[in-house]
Amino acid sequence: MSYIDDVGQTTEDAEEYKKKIRIHRARIALVLLVVILIGVGAAAALYNYNVSSAYTGYESVRSVERADAETARYITYNGGVLKYSNDGAAFINAELKEKWNQTYQMQDPLYAISQDVVALADKNGTTVYVMNANGLISEINTLLPIKKLAVSAQGLTAASLEDSGTSWIKFYSPSRGEKAIAETKILMDESGYPVSMCISPDGIKFGVAHLNVENGEARSILAFHNLGAVGENEIDNFIGSTAYSGTVFPVFEYINSEVAVAYGTDRIQVFKGKQIPELEFEILLDEEIVKVCYDSEHIGALLKNAKEDGKYRLDIYDLKGKMVFSKAIDRDYTDVKIQGDTIVLNNENEFCVYNIRGAKRYQKGYPRNILNITILGNHRFLVVDEKKLQVIRLTR
To answer: Nearest-5° angle of CA 108, CA 236, CA 231?
Structure first.
């Protein structure tokens, strides 16, 4: 039975009309869903293309001719490069503009870098120059010969000094000038020779790798000191150490304010702690380390490869100890760097770019001898070669 409403429409007609509306709405929803899925698929395909596809060449964004001596050396510093030689140093930014120039006279320059702070000193000299992105912030006279340097992002500088079989590590603050704010005396017959040292960017924690030889075998000690409130009541601010037999730690670095990494001849030790560093994880090695790399979130090593095809292998880990990248490398590369998602390896006449997902983005020769490559991001690099400084962008 059907009924007629006030406008002459039966209940059957009304139900049919509602049914048609539901079908129409369902069709619209289906079309929208298909469009969204196509869009997501296209976006995913574009993303995979952007992160995995290879670049075929590069274009020059800007360049300047080198006007320095052939003996000048270049290292990555503060998003640009630090140029240094026996008679001075200069900071050149990503725009290829010289931001500062510091003159000095040195026979064998040493350097240490933490973020935008760099310390420079002559090995066996007695003067340290500490600069930030704006130029000189401190000049320190140590009185005793300098052997090694470390610096924090605040300009706190540690200098390893040597005097007649006794080694001192003295700490200098930019606000205190030449007067050391703390010091540690090292009897080399007992503790061994300081091989490498580091300061956390926040200037609170200090690490030093000592080396001694006992019965013909290397014995290393990784020692930590706290320069803040936690260590102020401890002798020499000492807060702990670990001894290792049969290994040497030539590289010891704080990669951020909490994480220090010690690269040894048979292992990599990673420590973490806001005040007192503790071992987070270790990586035992069967192969020899050729080069190391790190940024604030990753550690890596280029190793002589004994496990698979390729003369070398590049392994990169996150700060939990998980391997996130491992690639066999068949070329002889003299340097490797990582910054965020980008890894670059180079020798004098070639550079190769990977992303952290393992995709090779670029590998080709370069027309002149490469001295240094700095990762700028967005597929751009600052390349220093034998004739010019050049910012390049990879192209497809």
So the answer is: 115
